[in-house]
Amino acid sequence: DKAVRIWDLASGNLLQTLLDHDNWVWSVSFSPNGEVLVSSCWGGKIKIWQDSNLALSIKYYFTECRPQRPG
Question: What pTM does this model have?
């Protein structure tokens, strides 16, 4: 679907749902220190979530393999 969900693997509890993608989420990756999460969706948008609350900090839109910042 269009959400990124963060789960506690030990308890199975849903910790957080990130809802800003407007298309199906295609991939998700955490930075090695766990403080930044990058997600991408089918429409080519990449979102960077960071800080202790995983707040959306940057949105990138890729067109023809060239990054475009929204205007």
Answer: 0.70
